[in-house]
Design a protein that fits this description.
Elements (H helix, E strand, L loop, with lengths): L3 E6 L4 H5 L12 H12 L3 E6 L7 H11 L3 E5 L5 H14 L4 E5 L1 H5 L1 H7 L5 E3 L4 H13 L9 E5 L2 E4 L23 H4 L12 E4 L2 E2 L18 E2 L2 H15 L3 E4 L8 H13 L5 E6 L6 H9 L2 E9 L3 H6 L6 H13 L3 E8 L6 H13 L4 E6 L16 E3 L13 E3 L4 H16 L2 H10 L3 H18 L6 E10 L3 H12 L5 E4 L6 H9 L5 E6 L27 H9 L5 H17 L4 E6 L9 H11 L4 E2 L8 H5 L4 H23 L7 E3 L9 H10 L4 E6 L6 H7 L6 H8 L2 H9 L2 E3 L20
Parallel strand pairs: 1-2, 1-3, 3-4, 4-5, 8-11, 11-12, 12-13, 13-14, 14-15, 18-19, 18-24, 18-25, 19-20, 20-21, 21-22, 23-24
Antiparallel strand pairs: 5-6, 6-7, 9-10, 16-17
Helix pairs in contact: 3-4, 9-10, 10-11, 14-15, 15-17, 18-27, 21-22, 25-28
Amino acid sequence: MASKITFINPPLTTLQRYGALSNAGASEPPLGLAYLGAVTRKMGIQTILLDACALRLSLEASLQSVIKEQPDFVGLTLATMSVGVASKLAEGIKNVLKRCTIIVGGPHLNALPQQTLQDNPSFDIGVVGEGERTLEELLRALESGRELSDIRGIVFRKENRVFVNSPRERIQDLDSLPFPAFDLLPQLNRYYRPTTQSILRLPSASLVTSRGCIGKCLFCDRKTFGNEIRLHSASYIVEMIERLQKVFGIKGIMFEEDNFMLFHKRLAEFAELMRKRRLKIAWSAQSRVDTINDEKLRLARSCGCWQILYGVESGSQKILDFLKKQVTNDQIEEAVRLTKKRGIYTKGFFMIGNPQESLKTLRETQEMIMRLPLDDVSVTFFTPYPGTDIWPSILQHGWLDGDWEDYTCFNPVFIPFGLTKEILVKAQKGIWQSFYSRPRIIVSYVRRLRSFSLLREFYRSWHSLSEYVRPSAIRKTLIVTAEDFGLNSGINQGIERLIMKGMIRGVSLVSTGEAFFEATKIAKNAPMLEVGVHLCLLETEPTLDGQEVSTLLGKTGRFENKFIRFLLRYMSGRIRTEHIRRELTAQIEKVRQEGFEITYLNGHQHIHMLPGIFQMTIELAKEYDIPFVRLPLVPLDSRFFFKKVLWRRKLGQLALNFLSSIYRKKLEKNGLFYSDYSYGFMESGLLSLEHLKDIFLSLRQGQSELFCHPAEENKSLQRRFGHWKYHWQEESQVLDSEEVKQMIDSFKIRLSTFRQNEPQNQNPDMILMDV
């Protein structure tokens, strides 16, 4: 009986890939999987290709589709943003199909082969580099039981170790490969299209006709295809287009590569064959500006080219040189003007937020965009992917977000020193608004209209863009932090799970907790995690010897167990302020000695908000250069008054709001920062899906914090802190639920950290030109 393989493009929605611009984004066929599918089918292996992206399948629906087919092998393609969901899918498959071998490939694996398998136990084997020849040899070896150690181009697991074999030479004759198995994909003419800006006729498809690149750009990954350029012949390309036209009715082609216009000879042969076969296809292609001349443009125009897309990246020569683009501003302007002279539409790809970016370079980019005779622009955020030349040194140039799923180019995951996320987003919106509001651009789109379906695509795209650039469409920022980290092992375990899932971005570390050192080990294994100190004067033993802080101790020789007892003693003057100051200093020092950079301060049961203690907190924050202090302030809207929580918690929140309104000015006067709102006090230990939805609806523009209390319940936790009557386990499950992830997407909430949103003394309006 023949073996069976299922190739999977992991489930990512257009919202996950393009954010608020999802209606304008492309839906491109997974050509790599289609090539591999053609190879395995030629081998006689029963082949299935599941494009969960195109079919808009959920993780669970994707899993059920695979299980139903009962494949012997599963092939998963890994982009950086899809590693997490691919790992979950592979884990689900392995739980049911015990003997199924999970094979992975793609750009993320090529960049981090060993780490990818180490971090994802559900991946069995990785195919590194070009996959066609390697996968063929690998599958024959697996079917025959042959040893894997001599198969070039793979990474595999054996006896709990990960081995990386020597690389395989790249395929020189691309025409030796079978045509991509387009018939294995969902309907090509229904589910796929290039970005709306590159559509002239529908249905349209995307093709890649070469491998390798002559460029040395710091931000591009060349690990898969290298710098040596290898080409499909003109006859191969034309025959593939002819099949697409006859079988699927394709009327437009987008060449998704930089090399299509590179070689004059192949371009001339392509133009001649297109004319001989009378193929009427409207096509567009990407190109470098330094490979264009008038003769190439003439040839391209003669055989259906209507648009060329140039990777400009920046209007600053300083940035271009740093990125090793090896082009000048003069070359950029000449290429665009030559193209327009030949009657070909032009689009420019730009990135902002590059290393060494500044307000000056942002302004230079905006000025170039408005100066060039472009018909379209794409403005994305510089994204340093693993495997690129810039990746090893990126932290020398700015802040980096560690969540792989955010690496889409539509999220500013990298913030260069001297700028903020808000400045970059505002710059992007300002450029788009200035560019697309001009009559010339609107007329350009009207001239492209060929059908009602194209009108519908344009409307969806323009509506998406106009909604995005409106001020009201700015995503709300939420920082999710976990309380009581280090207080108990069960709390540590619950928090660790949510850190790994990417929900928790910061932890409030209790240095007096019984599980403090266990917590520090967890935090050190999450380098992107932000650490705050949860100043504690209740329910634990002091950091210092009891004799040094004797007035802080209760009858048991520990801190007081109840807040009200502490409050009465403190307000009556029976607790000495120097004891408080001494103990809080020791707690901060203890965390610093573990090597952490402390980002924020808050207090266990908000004890830092008490008059007098808050002033100490300010002084300690300044002394230890800790930028953020929590103010537990929530908006007093209708949702507050109708919220289903205990009345005494509402009264407590009103008191905290009153104190926060007073303390704001003190923090600002001392150069310290705070979140605009901080949610979680009223829901402490009782956080439900309904509560979270209520909080998400209450979020205002700006930065908010949600502090939560997850834990894995155990006997020790119940014995020590059962009197809190917290529902730790339920809170953990809610925070890890798919419903919460969907709400975050639908409410356009951006999960972030304190450092990424640290205000700068710069005015974002400076970079928005009056046009």
